[in-house]
Every structure is written in C-alpha cells, then in structure tokens.
Amino acid sequence: MAAPLVLVVLAAVTVRAALYRSSLAAFIAERVEVASPLNAWKRVVEGLALLDLGVSPYSGAIFHETPLIIYLFHFLIEYAELVFMITDILTAVALYLAIQDYNKVVFKKQKLLIELDKYAPDVAELIRTPMEMHYIPLKVALVYLLNPYTVMSCVAKSTCAISNTVIAFFILATIRGSAFLSAVFLALATYQSLYPITLFAPALLYLLQRQFIPIKPKSKSFWLFTMQYAALYLCSLVVVICLSFFLLNSWDFIPSVYGFILSVPDLTPNIGLFWYFFAEMFEHFSLFFVCVFQINVFFYTIPLAVKLKEHPVFFMFVQLAIISIFKSYPTVGDVALYMAFLPVWSHLYRFLRNIFILSCMLIACSLLFPVLWHLWIFAGSANSNFYYAITLTFNIGQLLWAADTPHVLEHFHVWMKRMFTSF
Amino acid sequence: MLAVGLVLLLAAGLGQGTTRGVLREELLLRPLPVGDVAAVFQFRTRWDADLQQGAVSHYRLFPKALGQLVAAHGVRELHLALTQGFWSTQSWGQPPLGAPAGAELWVWFQDTVPDVDKAWKELSNILSGIFCASLNFIDSTNTVTPTASFKPLGVANGTDHRLLRYAVLPREVVCTENLTPWKKLLPCGSKAGLAVLLKAERLFHSSYHSQAVHIRPICRDASCLAVSWELRQTLTVVFDSFTSGQGKKDWSLFKMFSRTLTDACPLASESKVYVDISPKNKEKQLLEVTPTPTSVHEAIVQGDKTTYAVYDLLSPVLFNTSRSLNVQLKWKRPEDSSELSTPIMHAQRYVSGYGLQTGEISTLIYNTHPYRAFPVILLETVPWYLRLYVHTLTIITKGKENKPSYMHYQPAQDRKRPHLLEMLIQLPANSATKITIQFERALLKWTEYPPDPNHGFYVSSSVLSALVPSVIAMKDVNVEESPLFTSLFPSSDGSSYFLRLYTEPLLVNLPTPDFSMPYNVICLTCTVVAVCYGSFYNLLTRTFHVEEPSRGGLAKRLANVIRRLRGVPPI
Questions:
Q1: Residue B3's CB: how many other CB atoms inside 10 A?
Q2: InterPro entries in the record, alphabetically (chain B) (predicted)?
Q3: What's the confidence (pLDDT) of residue B120?
C-alpha cells in the first residue's frame, strides 16, 4: 500500500519542482486566486525584509502572517520551495493515514450493522466492499497532491499550505483519538487563520464517540470530557500566543493578524464574497455587514453539530467547506483541502443532485478567473463586474456542493436503514 | 517740562522703533538657458519681536493673521509653497527656490506643544482658510515625519524630528484665488513697489508659478542672543518669452508683466531689481540691459559666480530720466546653438509596468560633476493605496548595487498613513543612479475614489536634498547685507552648497469598481448568502422518512386510470 503512495508523492514532487523552475512560477505567484493578502509569499518576504530593517513587520499594512511563520522562514527562507513541498506531502500523508483509520472504523460499523441485520435487503449494491474502501486513502492523497489548486498554491508558496498541514495533522490526531494532540493542532490552526476554531465541535463529537461517551447534556462524563478538551485547547492557544508575544515582544500581531481577518480592510480581489461587496458597500452599513458576513462561518456550526452528530468526520468536511466559502480572504488552497475529502464520500455521488453541472461550474469558473482578470486589469476591455460575476458563480457552485452533500448523506443512511426505520 | 515730554516721546518712538519690522523687497530676473525668463520676487519682513511670548499685540508690517498663528500654535518654523507646473531642472538649471507641484507644507513646532498632530491639523485648517487652498485635506494619510530631509532653516536648538510635520498635496491647483490672499499679506499690498507687477492674468499665463511663505526665527544680531522673526514671501514665475516674443529671446518687464515699476514700496527699507547678466561664455558680453543699472553686483550663487545688474528703486537717480522703470534685456546677437550646461544634480522619476495590478517607481538621479562624489538624501512619500514592497528596492549606480548608508522606512497603514522612505545615497562622480521599487495597486472602497477616478491618483514628488560641491569656493558673507535670493538656505562651508530638488509628481491609475453597481452587488452577494442559509436551513430542519409506495391519493388513482386508458405506464 505504501508503494502507490510513494509513487503519488514522487509525481507530486516532480510536478512542483518542474513548475518552480518554469517561467510560470512568477505568473502563478501573482495570481490573486492563489495568493491572498493574508498568505502571499511576497508579503512574507516583505515581512522578513522589514524585520531586517529593524521595523516591526506589523507596523505596516502589508504583512499579516503570524509571528511563528515569520520565525520559521527567518531560518528557512533559502529552502522555501522545499518547505512548501514538504508541507504538501505531510498534509497528504496525514490525510492518508487519517482516512485509513477512519475507514476501518466505518467498515467495522457497517459490518456490525450487517451482522445485526439492520440494513434493508435490497441495498446490497450500496454496501461498500473492502476493495473499494481500500483505495480511498490513496485517492484522498492523490486528490490533494495532484489537485491543480494545491499545485498552484504550492508553486505560489502561499502559506495557506502550512495552515492546511496543521489542519490535516489535527484531523489525523482526532481520528487517532489523541485528545491532547488534537487540541494542540487545533490551537495551532486557530492561531494560524482563526476560522478553524469552528472545527472544535466536530473534533469533540468524534472524540466523544470514540470513547463511547454518550452525547447527552445530562451525562456527567460528556461535560467532563468537553471541559477537558476545551481546557487543553485553550491552554495550547494561550501558550502559542504567548510564545509569539515573546518572539516579537509586542502584541502588535493581534490586531494585524486577527483584526485584519475580521475587519477586512484590504479589498484586493480574491475568489471570495467579501472584496467586491465591501468595495461597493455604503460606509454607514459597513460594520454591520462585516458582522453579518463573518458570522456565517460560525453560524452553522452548532446546528450542524446537532444534525450531524452521528457523522463527525463528515461534519468536519462540511465545516471546512463553509470556512473556505465564507472566510474573508479565501484562496484556492482552502478549496483544495476540503476537495481532498471528496473521495471519502464517493459512494454518495450517485445520489448527488446536479453533480455534473456543479463540477462544470467549478471547472469553468477556475478557467475563467485568469481570463476575466486579464480583461479587467490588463486589457481594460472588461470591468470589475466581470471578475465579480465569476467569483459569485464559483461560490454558488461551492455552496450548492457543500450544502447538498449533507442531504445526500442523511438520505443515504436513512435509505440503508429503511427496513429498520420503517417498521 | 516740554523737554521732558519731548524726551519721553522720543523714548516711546525709539521703543517703537526697536520692535518695528524691516521690509526688504527684491526681484531677481534670470534668463534661462532655453530662452525662458524666471522672475523671483522676494519680500522679507523681519521683526525684532518675540512672537512666542504672546505679548505682541501691535502688528505693523508683519501680517497679524500669520503672527497670531505662529503664537497660538507653537510654530517654530513654517514653510508653505503653492506651485503650478514643474520646474524642469534639466533645461532651466537649478531652481532658485524649489517646490513640488501642488501644495507643500512643512512645519517645525516648538517642543512646548503638547499634541503636535492636533496643532498640525488645526494649523493646516487655518492656513487653508488664509490662503484659500485645500490644505484642509492634509490629514494623517498624507502627513509624514521625515527624519533627515528637512532640517530647520532658522535658529534652532535641537532637531527632534518628532516636532516636524511634512505634507504635500500634489493634486492642488494653484490659481488667482491663492494669489490674492498671498498679496494681501504684503505691507504695501499690490499698490506700490515691486508688487505692482503681480497681476494674476500675466502670472498665470506662464510655464511655472510658485508662491511660498516661509516663517522662521533668525538671529537678531551676530551674537545671536535674541531671535527675530522673519517672514519671507516668495513668488517664482517662468515666462516662455521665446514663443511669446516671436522667436526672439529679448524681454522687458512690460512684456512679461504688462506693467512697469514706478516706485519702491514706501515701507520698504530696500527695494532692488537684480538681473542676471553673467556671461555664459567668458569672452563676450552677449547681452545688454537698459536702462543702465545703478550698480553691478557679483555673488556666488549655487556654487557658481554670477553677475547681476542692480536697480535700486530707492535711489533717486533711477527715476530722474523717466517716470517708470522698464528693465529690458536684448541679446546682442542670436546665441549660436547654445549648448545647455547641465546642472550638477538633476533627477527624474517615472512609473513603469502595465496593467492595474502592480507597477514600479523608478527614480534616476544624475551627478554630472566630473570628479566629485556627494551624498543625497532621498525622501519618498507614497500614499497607502500603492503598497510598496521594500524588499524589491534596488539602487544601482554604474551597474553596481549602491547600498544606502542610512535608511529610514515607515510602512503605510491602510487609510491611516503613507509610506515614508528616506535614504542617504552616495552619488559617485559623473554617474546616474537608478532607484526602483515595486508596488501593488489597491482596490479602494467606492466612496474613497475622487470624482474622476480614471484620471488617476497623484503621488507627490520625491525630495532630494544634497550638499552639492560648488565650482567656486564661497566666502562667508553677511546674510543681512547680501541679496535675499542667496540667503534662504544656510550655507555650510565654502566648498559646497545646499540644494533641494523635487522630482515630477506621478500619476498612477488604480483598478476601480463599477460605481453604478452598489445596489446590484449588495443584492447579488446577499442572495448568495441567503441561498446558503436556505440550503442549510432546509437540511437542518428536514427529517428523512422512507415512505412505502402506497396506492396514492384520489388524484393519483384518477391519473393512473387515464394513463392506463392512454396506454402509458402508470406513475
């Protein structure tokens, strides 16, 4: 099993190395879809240059990375390309291992249900065979590593890849059942880009399920474990933030990183919903709408936790999709992360509505981004509305996809158990 | 009794006399190499009173509006210039008084001022009222605190640069409405003296117009135990006499200003007209001035020896023959293809790159001195919406990297403050230094664009301050005696002189949103968010049940009966 994975990794490394050497690298690094103000490599270099000049990197409006990143690259700037390749590989391997473990659990559960005779007799074709489940982890790694989105954000050296690695490790730790590591990586992910805080809920649900603790508000052990996990998470977060404080000896990074994420002052176009909306917003309502838009990431977490408490990993996937749609500076790297999970739910596709249309939408939009950007910015024959329209379409595509899969999952499980439920 | 009264009166008169101001007015006419003529007016009011004490209530020559301003806001030094056009150093030589296009204001505050930013804001608002200029647009987004470029020009005991504020409004258009209040500050207004020449319709029919106000404390005497206040009002104008004079380079006061001089300002203690008649090539005197000057003055200005024909308006000889003075200059023979003597230092700046995403600002600084190198301080102020990347800064001289010996960089903050870049660069002899820095163009909120967004955004001139080596060693001269045009900048030592140059302002386009779209964008984006909300709401509230296929309701049965009759499979 390891051999195909090594092959995939080799292919991924070759593609990236070739692109780094090609003239495309500079072109890709400038793309607004790949590098947002938050994670563009150019800004990291600028931050390092400011640090060298003796100016605090956070005194300007260019650098918005966390202090740990700047110190990481302070030492590794020469090997940046290598670092980004390694982070991508680590992400893929972590996802591979995580999904492998997860599939074992799923398979066990399915076996149990079959033994208990809880499935309807005519769903035999829907029961997942070990053969197809065997290749899912590999498919996940493959989809992550060879996804053009990932390749581009790696070539552009977008630090989004590092956030993705941290999130992948968090998922691995969660699925392996290590509450401590899971909390630590979640804290790191939160520290890195704030929004992963919403992954707290699915991780908690999964860990509870794994330890066979009933998810009931009345149960004492439920609260005990929740408290434990929350405390671990908060402690690691405080440690990381204090560490950053001691690195730079100032709190400047808090407004410059998290304030920047939340208040959206930089309206550089990207694939998200924020930039054009706030460029066109009436000043008077700006704050209100910033709140309305930011709340979207956090808003669905609790209801989804209630609804999907049986499927925490799936919940994690949906939450990642929501983050990538509603975060203030999204890039294709964020999209790539949740897309990597699609093979895990490949058995659901036959139930998915409009899968063909949605895939076409996403592909067409991805191709149109650079075209319309060129027409607006360089040729001057189009205006901002063209690019805005394509970001809107792209987001609708993502959104319908993300909102549709939970339906299908519910549907699937009800269908599988219908004999049980209908009587 | 009478004697005592007389003595008292005399004493009072003397007392008055000591705090009385001294006004000197001066006009310098300088033919420029390409055939244009530069006219520099300077009006200098010197007042031996201490404005800062607040005890001054009686104003005579010194304008009260400015005097009160200085006293109330703790101003130590104030320099305001309003300029239309661009002084082309390359073809006109070094400017007598440099100024950037638009409005420039720099102020040193007293160290007793508690809140410099507040005082600066109030000051710019008041000046905006006094000079009818848009100086009220000076705010934190275009104000910087340079550390090295702007030193106090007057007496100062300490140069803590936190007391300095500097701002340029490159978009400011200078017109008659700015000239009238400026003229009103003159003791004689435009009624008498040199100021009668200041007619707006001629002054603004020119290639370059720059008016300035400089207020600074100066030493009252050689021992410098007390300070006097100096107000210098300067006006520089460049007439294109070559094209307006039918291809001839001859000019006269009447031709340029459509006025002639009749008398000196009665309040002035000195009123002189200087005409630059320095021979360009040593052998022959090529030009002729009429009437005959009252005297000839030789001075070393900007490192070079120059000869001036002087007309003293206060000397009775001048108005003996005619009632008015109309200085004329004639070239004896058409100058044979006058080769331009290139100034020792000149600079140019431009924006390169295409598209609206990124760009590059390039500054070229030339040192044409054959064998001497000198350092220059470059000050760049770039608005926040051009995001400068300081790691892309390159300074190349003669194909080699030139490392600045001092560098101060303050990055911009969005909607708060501009980028400030100050560098001390050594310019080797006979070299061109190219400084480039890349920037990214920001997309602004639609309300932040000016009414004509596609016109572009101005980036103010960069400032070059240098001690340029002079050709001829300068002698120490008494500042009070020498002509005004030599005495604004303090001279350091004999071998070099201070020069401040301003480069071109830049015009940069930014990407624009569609200004007609706010409602559409708000509606469309909110629709997407609502679709998302709808889908998730649907998911969260719906429960799935498997329904066994039933016979269906009455309608279905009826439909099936009909379908069966039609021969179509039932539903």
A1: 7
A2: PIG-T
A3: 95
Question: A235 vs chain B: nearest CA distance in angstroms?
Answer: 32
Flag whether pLDDT at A164 surpasses 90: yes
Measured between alpha carbons, how far is A44 from A37 in angstroms, rounded to an integer? 10
B410 contacts chain A (CB < 8 A): yes
Start-to-end C-alpha separation, chain B: 134
Which of B201, B154, B197, B210 is CA-nearest to residue B313?
B197
Structure tokens at B96: 């007598």
Q: pLDDT tens across A20-51, in order? A: 999 999 999 999 999 999 999 999 999 999 99
| Euclidean distance between CA atoms B419 and B413, whole angstroms | 8
**A24: which 2 tokens?**
């495309």
3-state SS of chain A? CHHHHHHHHHHHHHHHHHHHHCCHHHHHHHCCCCCCCCCCHHHHHHHHHHHHHCCCHHHCCCCCCCHHHHHHHHHHHHHHHHHHHHHHHHHHHHHHHHHHHHHHHHHHHHHHHHHCCCCCHHHHHHCCCHHHHHHHHHHHHHHHHHCHHHHHHHHCCCCHHHHHHHHHHHHHHHHHCCHHHHHHHHHHHHHHHCHHHHHHHHHHHHHHHHCCCCCCCCCHHHHHHHHHHHHHHHHHHHHHHHHHHHHHCCCCHHHHHHHHHHHCCCCCCCCCCHHHHHHCCCHHHHHHHHHHHHHHHHHCHHHHHHHCCCCHHHHHHHHHHHHHHHCCCCCHHHHHHHHCCHHHHHHHHHHCCCHHHHHHHHHHHHHHHHHHHHHHHHHCCCCHHHHHHHHHHHHHHHHHHHHHHHHHHHHHHHHHCHHHHHC
The string of pLDDT tens digits covering residues B554-564 is 788 888 888 88
The chain A residue lying nearest B511, using CA atoms, is A377
Pairing between β-strand B37-47 and β-strand B227-239 as defined by DSSP bridges = antiparallel
pLDDT digits (tens, 9 = 90+) for B29-70: 988 877 788 999 999 998 888 776 666 677 888 888 898 888
Q: What is the mean pLDDT of residues B518-537?
A: 93
Residues of chain A positioned with their CB less than 8 A from the CB of B387 = 61-62
Alpha-carbon gap, residue A257 to A241, rounded angstroms: 12
pLDDT tens string A408-423? 887 777 777 654 443 3
Min Cα–Cα distance to chain B from A7, Å:
38
Q: What is the DSSP letter of B19?
A: H
B459's enclosing H/E stretch is strand B457-459
* Cα distances (angstroms) measured from residue B104 to each of B80, B88, B128, B142, B207: 6, 18, 12, 11, 19
Q: What is the number of CB-based contacts under 8 A between chain A and chain B?
A: 149
CA distance A288 to A44: 31
- CB-CB under 8 Å, B411 with A59: yes
Nearest-by-Cβ selection for A61 from B384, B513, B522: B384
Stated as kind and residue range, the H or E segment containing B165 is strand B164-169
| Cβ–Cβ contact B532 with A under 8 A | yes
Which positions in chain A touch B390 (Cβ < 8 Å)?
Answer: 46, 49-50, 53
* Cα within 13 Å of Cα(B487), Cβ side: 19
Does residue B334 carry a pLDDT above 60?
no
Contacts within 8 Å (CB) and 24+ apart, B566-571? none
Residues in A touching B445 (Cβ below 8 Å): 267, 278-279, 281, 283
ipTM: 0.92
- Residues A404 and B537 sit within 8 Å (Cβ to Cβ): no
| Rounded distance between C-alpha atoms, residue A393 and residue B49, angstroms | 72
Is B169's pLDDT higher than 90? yes
Q: A296 and B529 in contact by Cβ < 8 A?
A: yes
Indicate the helix (H) or strand (E) that contains B282. none
